[in-house]
Amino acid sequence: MTPDDRALVDRFLDMMAAEYGASINTLTSYRNDLERAAEGLPSLGTAAADDLAKLGTQWADLARSTVARRSAALRRFYGFLVDDGLRSDDPSPALPRPRLERPLPRILDEPEVVRMFEAAEARAASGEPNAVRDLALLELLYGSGLRASELVGLPRRAVRPGQEFLMIRGKGDKERLVPISSRATAAVGKWEELVSGSSLWLFPSGKKHLSRVRLFQIVRALAADAGIAPDRVSPHVLRHAFATHLLSGGADLRVLQSLLGHADIATTQIYTHVDSARLVELVNARHPLAERPSLT
What we know:
Blueprint: H1 3-20, H2 24-38, H3 49-53, H4 55-58, H5 64-83, H6 110-124, H7 129-144, H8 148-152, E1 165-169, E2 175-179, H9 182-192, E3 204-205, E4 208-209, H10 212-225, H11 235-248, H12 253-260, H13 265-268, H14 270-274, H15 276-286
Antiparallel strand pairs: 1-2, 3-4
Helix pairs in contact: 1-2, 2-5, 6-7, 7-9, 7-11
């Protein structure tokens, strides 16, 4: 990458941080994708549409997800250059656009989740600190649909008696409200009694908070205790279960989008495929034409 190109990328990333609150990980990912793309271009900043069109051949051996991500980074980069008057044309329509099929999320059915809670509650009844903590983690994962990073990073007083919502700072440093059930409040309250008063975190581990890797291990151990194959379960699977079971119960898709913190409704719509049987039943039962006699 030329010095001029590197300076343009730095300006682009500064804009992403300032205007969109992009995290360090997001900025690093953008920089990496732009640097890799620049390897196949005469100049990143001045590349013409013909130059970008050739990238499809150069990237032929890459995974479609990688091609899609690099193309998206370039489209945003060239959009920035045009918006800032750094070039007059946008060559990005020539970029490859691989079609991606979003995989269906793995989920647990409701009886399996119940078994996990029964096993966790039985362990927590002993009063053993780690067991009490694990039940609180499970209640927040499945009861509020938190991401793993959001859960382990909760501050010490995030959950308060009588407070029905949590303020979560999620992806892109965006804030959202998520509900917290009375069950979760009670479980967290019992755990807080065992947490050092000097801790900054609700789920401390040494001088920091519990890591996502450790949370992953805890969730798999809870699954094993419930007689569920551990490789079927993760914190993200419990988040999927939260979403799917809410949808099964009649939750509105837009409400679900807000609860999950999805920027795009298309991300939330994946759950309609998981719960397609309920949606067909809903159309048959609730559509205005459902009660009209058939003409045949």
